[in-house]
Amino acid sequence: MLTSDEPMTQNHKLRILVCVSGGGTNLQAIIDGIRDGRITNAEIIRVISNNKKNYALTRAEENGIPALSISPKDYADREQFNKALLDAVNEASPDLVVLAGFLVVLPEEMTAQYRNRMINIHPALIPSFCGKGYYGLKVHEKVLERGVKITGATVHFVDEGTDTGPIILQKAVEVEDGDTPEILQKRVMEQAEWVILPEAIDLIANGKVTVEDGKCRKDRKS
Fold first, then answer.
1. Cα angle vertex 165, ends 82, 42, to 5°?
2. Predicted pLDDT of residue 220
């Protein structure tokens, strides 16, 4: 179990499956984190995209990671797509599923099956600017509309709700005068998302995250 206090052994690295819809910058942060040692005891074993043309698939290919596209457009209905997605995830036998900008409503079976074994990165400080309709650039547009001075990013486990699962890590980022949604998005990615997503994965891979009563407890001691 990922939520035990026992880290993965050298003979069994944490098997990570990454689901992504866009360009894959958070995927790249994971790849870089494993390469430079910020993420230990882990490996990416598959990348799944719901978009055949996104750059995340190219990133995977360039790094020798098996990848495939599963698009709703290729299936007669949502039920068939959901089955194909879950089959592809299960086929890879991941220990951890990482939603790295995956703009897909997950099938209930997947959420149940990977409870406390699936995490998401959200570009705001949950519970602010999250939930239905808050994704991608829309989050930063709403942050600027509201005029808040601090935003950030959150890594959390995925449950049946939207951005409601147990929070693992958060990091704050200042909102600056003159910010546009695009400028703020870039700062949040660079200063928060690309920092805490690798950190959260490393904590999980080394048995330092537990979930109790719907809340995460972390042990950062070496």
1. 75
2. 64
Q: Measuring CA to CA, which residue among 26, 68, 64, 30 is closest to residue 51?
A: 68
pLDDT for 165-214, tens place per residue?
A: 999 999 999 999 999 999 999 999 999 999 999 999 999 999 999 999 88
pTM, whole model, 2 decimals?
Answer: 0.92
Tokens representing residue 135 in the block: 């994704």
Q: 48 pLDDT exceeds 60? A: yes
* pLDDT digit string, tens, across residues 133-150: 999 999 999 999 999 999
Residue 7 clears pLDDT 80, i.e. is over it: no
Query: HEC profile for the chain?
Result: CCCCCCCCCCCCCEEEEEEECCCCHHHHHHHHHHHHCCCCCEEEEEEEECCCCCHHHHHHHHCCCCEEECCHHHCCCHHHHHHHHHHHHHHHCCCEEEECCCCCCCCHHHHHHCCCCEEEEECCCCCCCCCCCCCCHHHHHHHHHHCCCEEEEEEEECCCCCCCCCEEEEEEEECCCCCCHHHHHHHHHHHHHHHHHHHHHHHHHCCCEEEECCEEEECCCC
Active site residues: 122
